[in-house]
Amino acid sequence: MQHWQWRVLNNETLVIDLGKNITQELSFKRSFLRDRLPEDVSFSMDDAEAFQNFSDYLDTHSVLSSTEQFNIALHATALVRFGKIMLPQSWYFKFGPYNNEKSWPKDHLFCALTSNNQHADFLIIEQDERCSLCMLVEESFEVGGFKTMKQFEVTRVLNDRLQESQRHPIPNNDSFTTQRWA
Length: 182
Prior knowledge:
The structure is a single chain. The chain has 182 residues and is of the alpha+beta class. The chain folds into 2 domains: 5-82, no CATH class; 90-161, no CATH class. It is built from 2 helices and 10 strands. The chain has a 4-stranded antiparallel β-sheet with strand order 3-2-1-4, with no helix packed on it. It has a 4-stranded antiparallel β-sheet with strand order 5-6-7-10. The longest helix is centred in the N-terminal third of the chain and has 17 residues, at 45-61.
């Protein structure tokens, strides 16, 4: 990773040079990336940490191939570094069971979103107490009956729209019983 370089080609396409003449083009629409991107910038220590955290999470909680995991982690890292700030677009998605009283577990990066009875898995890229930036990990997802998201596209939603993903199930904390001691 120490020789990896981010590059922007023709002010349009984000790529990463992985060294040894290997270049990976990232599948982002230009509108998802910040307006002023440097043409060439080194893969930083922060990038390496984010990439490693996403990679470790995917390795632990995903049955995807190592190549798919690599691509997801790389796209997630690029969004952390170069992603444009987005407003929530929650109205497209159904409410989930999480709210102010029951918050989303911070150690679960896989989530699902539902729109028009379509259900798809996403990876949480960034999250605060109110919103989550979610990247689609499936091939495509129809949103609102008129828009189709493609793999690696992102949406920001209020946390009350997040639902459990079967890629990393959330344990039911209500299932244990308490024993009374006499």
